[in-house]
């Protein structure tokens, strides 16, 4: 039986390029596929030219094609712009307008990179897909389930963004960099002479240059012809005192300190946003602490379901140090209550809560 090819998601960066080159060096049949997700020149007056520290630009497509030619593999660009807008960009906009802080990279993983991309891989005759994510996959015989594990390089671990992966998706995915540290990947790229070996890592959301979320929302809504809704509102203290005004709740997120436009002589943080009343509530650091919350749309990975309370370490942001907590089954399906041993700072609606048992990802859901 011929060796079925592996479809590598090539972003044009050093990580995915190294994955493709490693598989070729191992004698595997490889196809390189780059996903065109967003037209960076689409929103006049908002799109930027030149380096922005993000992926999915025309330069990245050029770099991916150059690496594919260098290592001698077939290479194609697939256009997922419509799907990306429907499943990632529109929910991103809706979440911000509803007072939540979304994670578009997780939605992209769930619905594009491990969904539509798998369909494209099927069309190309590929058996598996491989990406440059820093994570690991293994099959657990006792449970009969595929498990997702943290990458060995804790500083680069990306499992927080991968909690939505399903058993069929994990069964066909490869993460060749999961057991390596970033410096090792750089050295591998250099040793194989890859043209992108010294290329900087992407840092920003691909459709939001330089972190300008509010400007993107304004430009996107204007392009979409959505009538401008009233945005100006009050900034209030937790005791109800009005401290100032703002231009829109979508410009604020829980835990934010900079750019509040008010001063009281002590540090203030965003405690909550309410799009209905257009109020932004601010307070001191102690008022950011929260001991419990519910997560919705929970996806379980290493266990089939939560049918009894269990202990876990819970991350509420990508850079958050996972904190010990109890996971309690909720009455509604696919929901769970999280109770921390010690209150945590800035539990933010719209962010993900990912549950760990040591290096193993139990599952995760969206903070309510």
Can I get a quick summary?
This protein is an alpha/beta fold. It contains seven helices and 17 strands.
Can you give a write-up of this model?
By secondary structure, the protein is α/β, with parallel strands linked by helices. It has 3 domains: 6-132 and 176-211, 3-Layer(aba) Sandwich (Rossmann fold), CATH 3.40.50.620; 230-283, SH3 type barrels, CATH 2.30.30.280; 288-367, Translation factors (Elongation Factor Tu (Ef-tu), domain 3, Beta Barrel), CATH 2.40.30.10. Helices cover 25% and strands 28% of the residues. It has 7 helices and 17 strands. It has helices at residues 14-25, 58-71, 81-97, 104-123, 167-172, 182-191, 213-224, and strands at residues 6-9, 30-36, 75-79, 128-130, 135-140, 145-150, 173-174, 233-237, 242-246, 269-274, 279-283, 289-300, 310-315, 323-329, 336-345, 352-357, 360-367. Strands 12-15-14-13-16-17 form a 6-stranded antiparallel beta barrel. A 5-stranded parallel sheet has the order 3-2-1-4-7, sandwiched between helices. Strands 9-8-11-10 form a 4-stranded mixed sheet, with no helix packed on it. Strand 2, helix 2 and strand 3 (75-79) form a beta-alpha-beta unit. Helix 1 crosses helix 6 (182-191). The radius of gyration is 22 Å and the shape is globular. The termini are far apart. Residues 49-54 have low confidence and may be disordered.
């Amino acid at each position: 039986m011929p060796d079925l090819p592996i479809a590598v998601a090539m972003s044009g960066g050093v990580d995915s390029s190294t994955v493709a080159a490693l598989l070729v060096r191992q004698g595997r049949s490889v196809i390189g596929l780059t996903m065109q997700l967003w037209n960076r020149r689409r929103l006049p007056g908002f799109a930027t030219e030149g380096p922005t520290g993000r992926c999915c630009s025309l330069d990245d497509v050029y770099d991916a094609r150059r690496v594919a030619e260098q290592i001698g593999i077939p290479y194609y660009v697939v256009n997922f712009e419509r799907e990306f807008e429907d499943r990632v960009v529109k929910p991103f906009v809706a979440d911000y307008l509803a007072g939540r802080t979304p994670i578009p990279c997780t939605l992209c993983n769930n619905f594009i990179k491990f969904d539509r991309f798998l369909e494209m891989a099927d069309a190309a005759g590929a058996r598996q897909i491989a990406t440059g994510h820093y994570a690991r996959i293994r099959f657990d015989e006792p449970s009969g389930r595929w498990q997702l594990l943290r990458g060995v390089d804790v500083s680069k671990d990306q499992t927080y963004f991968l909690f939505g992966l399903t058993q069929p998706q994990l069964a066909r995915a490869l993460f060749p960099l999961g057991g390596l540290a970033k410096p090792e990947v750089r050295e591998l790229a250099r040793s194989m002479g890859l043209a992108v070996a010294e290329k900087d890592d992407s840092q920003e959301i691909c459709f939001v240059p330089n972190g300008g979320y509010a400007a993107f929302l304004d430009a996107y809504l204007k392009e979409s012809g959505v009538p401008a809704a009233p945005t100006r509102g009050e900034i209030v203290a937790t005791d109800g005192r009005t401290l100032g005004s703002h231009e829109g709740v979508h410009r604020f997120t829980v835990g934010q300190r900079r750019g509040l436009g008010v001063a009281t002589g002590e540090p203030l943080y965003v405690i909550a946003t309410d799009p209905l009343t257009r109020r932004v509530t601010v307070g001191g650091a102690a008022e950011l602490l929260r001991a419990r919350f519910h997560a919705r749309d929970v996806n379980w990975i290493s266990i089939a379901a939560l049918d009894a309370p269990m202990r876990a370490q819970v991350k509420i942001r990508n850079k958050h140090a996972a904190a010990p907590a109890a996971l309690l089954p909720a009455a509604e399906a696919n929901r769970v209550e999280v109770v921390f041993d010690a209150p945590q700072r800035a539990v933010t609606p719209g962010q993900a809560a990912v549950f760990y048992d040591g290096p193993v990802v139990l599952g995760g859901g969206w903070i309510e």
